[in-house]
Amino acid sequence: MIFKALRSDLGVEDSAFDDLYPTNIKILGQRHWTPVDVAKKAAKYLVQHPKDKILDIGAGAGKFCLVGAACTEGMFYGVEQRESLVEISNGIAQKHQIDNVEFIHANINQISFSDYDAFYFYNSFYENIDTTCPIDHSILPNQELYHIYTEYLRQQLKQLPIGTRIVSYWSGWDEIPTSFDLEQTACRGLLNFWKKII
Q: Is residue 160 domain-resident?
């Protein structure tokens, strides 16, 4: 019912969507997983043409990709370093027959951005410097990794062609190169829509 509603562009409550997850993942939703309405706005901005390949940089439990795949004709890919979350996300996609989504177990610096058309970034590196609400204890905070990943993201974005789009959520702007223009903003400035202009 949830994915049918998303395909019909109907409203879906986050509490209903988060019921798809095991309890230990569900309780992290408010802090770590993209809200449904945010995911819909971001996905519709990023997907310009059917089959556009959208990369979620640090997919977590896969919520953005699952929502985006259900409400657009894009192809969604989520890269996530926690194998357990990749398995959960792929399991939900298979169970609900969402064929235009795939979750990849890897670190972001193992991914070539040139393979994708547009990008979503929900400040996934921040867990390396914030210990207040960890997803789990399998990834230890590491300030150096925060800077390494942020710089990798910035350098990859610099190399992308003019017209490339990225949406950032709850993020500082340090990782967005100056070659990107802020086209619009939403959610009291927390959700930002960028397009590469030079």
A: no
pLDDT along the chain (198 residues), means of 10: 92 95 88 93 98 97 98 98 96 97 96 97 79 74 89 96 97 91 96 97
- Find the CATH number of the domain harbouring 104: 3.40.50.150
What is the rounded radius of gyration, in angstroms, for the C-alpha atoms of the chain? Answer: 16
Token couple for 189:
């400035």
CA distance 134 to 181: 32
**Is pTM, for the whole model, over 0.85?**
yes
Nearest to 90 by CA among 28, 5, 4, 20: 20
Token pair 């929502």 in the structure block, residue: 67
Domain interval for residue 17: 2-147
The total number of structural domains in the chain stands at 1
